[in-house]
Design goal:
about 15% helix; alpha+beta; globular; about 50% strand; about 160 residues
C-alpha cells in the first residue's frame, strides 16, 4: 500500500517525508520511492503531495520544489529489507516545468556527485531493514528502519517514520 510518512532524522532534527507504493508510482514511476527533506523551514527536497504544500510553496516563493527519487526493491529472501537502487534522480520543478539536476546510473556515480571518497563510492547498495511496522493505514502509524548495508556515511542510521 501507499505510504506518506514523516521522520525526524539525526542530531540536526531534519524532517523528512517520503512516498512509497502507489503514491510513489503515481509521482516517479513503478518500483521507485521519492524522498523529501526539510531542515527547519528550508526545504531541501519536497513535493506538493501533502497538506503542507501551500506553506512549503509560500516559503520558497511559490511553486518551486526539489525531488530526490530512486529505485527500491524488497529483498527476495527477507521481506523486511528494502534495497535502494539506481537510477537516482534529483529534479527541480519550477513554474510547472521539471529540470533534471542529477541522473546517476549507479550508486558510485551518485555518491561521487555527493563528494564521497573512493571507498564510500565503492560500498554496496544501501539496504534498509524494517524493524517495526504499524499497519492500520491511519495517520500516526510508525515504521522504524535501519541502514544495515551500504554507504558508510549512513550505515547504522535509524529512521523513524510516522504516517501522515
Amino acid at each position: 500500500p501507499a505510504s506518506i510518512a514523516r521522520a525526524l532524522l539525526g542530531p540536526l532534527k531534519l524532517e523528512s517525508s517520503q512516498l512509497l507504493g502507489d503514491a510513489a508510482t503515481a509521482r516517479v514511476g513503478v518500483g521507485r520511492v521519492v524522498q523529501f527533506i526539510m531542515v527547519g523551514r528550508a526545504w531541501i527536497a519536497l513535493s506538493d503531495f501533502t497538506r503542507k504544500a501551500p506553506q512549503v510553496q509560500q516559503a520558497l516563493g511559490g511553486g518551486a520544489r526539489v525531488e530526490l527519487s530512486s529505485g527500491a526493491v524488497l529483498d527476495s529472501v527477507d521481506m523486511r529489507v528494502l534495497e535502494i537502487r539506481p537510477p537516482f534522480r534529483l529534479d527541480m520543478v519550477l513554474a510547472g516545468r521539471r529540470f533534471n539536476l542529477v541522473e546517476a546510473a549507479s550508486d558510485a556515480e551518485f555518491r561521487e556527485v555527493n563528494a564521497r571518497t573512493a571507498e564510500e563510492q565503492a560500498a554496496p547498495r544501501n539496504r534498509y531493514e524494517q524493524s517495526y511496522l504499524e499497519e492500520s493505514g491511519r495517520p500516526g502509524d510508525l515504521r522504524i528502519s535501519r541502514v544495515v548495508e551500504g554507504d558508510p556515511v549512513v550505515l547504522g542510521t535509524v529512521y523513524v517514520h510516522e504516517r501522515m
